[in-house]
Specification:
Length: 151
């Protein structure tokens, strides 16, 4: 696995029929799936696969806390961009801000706290060096727009 400097990252997805409710609007829980897929692709883009993380480091990430705001509905056929920016990192925790956009319109934004655990004991473990960790501060809204660099 290779380490990479973290830049604000974005990943695109199209809304399928299976993602929507009877009104043709994305079901609220499916936004969480989009966020998860974007985090997985972000790591893959840095050369880190979740299976290799488990095998080589005996480490897994679990969602410890999630805050999400829904601003506008996404609908069948929409093309969405999910962005991600790390905002905080400790020895065992990584916090990312994620936005879901349709063109330039904010659909949803989230702040996701991930804990790194030993896959055998389920106890906190130091985040492996291969995980991107260039952290930027974000504004109160949770937007992934980069601001000043944290040390």
């Amino acid at each position: 696995m290779k380490a990479a400097a973290t830049q604000p990252y974005s990943w695109n997805v199209r809304v399928y029929y299976e993602d929507t409710d009877a009104a043709g609007v994305v079901y609220y829980a499916n936004y969480l799936k989009y966020l998860e897929r974007a985090r997985t692709e972000w790591l893959a883009g840095a050369g880190v696969t979740l299976s290799a993380l488990e095998i080589e480091h005996n480490a897994v990430f679990v969602v410890h806390r999630l805050e999400i705001d829904y601003h506008r509905p996404a609908r069948l056929g929409d093309s969405l961009t999910i962005s991600l920016a790390p905002v905080e990192r400790t020895r065992v925790r990584l916090v990312v801000a994620q936005d879901i956009l349709r063109n330039d319109e904010l659909i949803s934004n989230a702040r996701v706290s991930l804990a790194c655990l030993d896959k055998r004991t389920w106890r906190p473990v130091v985040i492996p060096e291969c995980i991107p960790g260039h952290v930027r501060r974000v504004g109160r809204t949770g937007s992934t727009a980069p601001r000043e660099k944290l040390s």
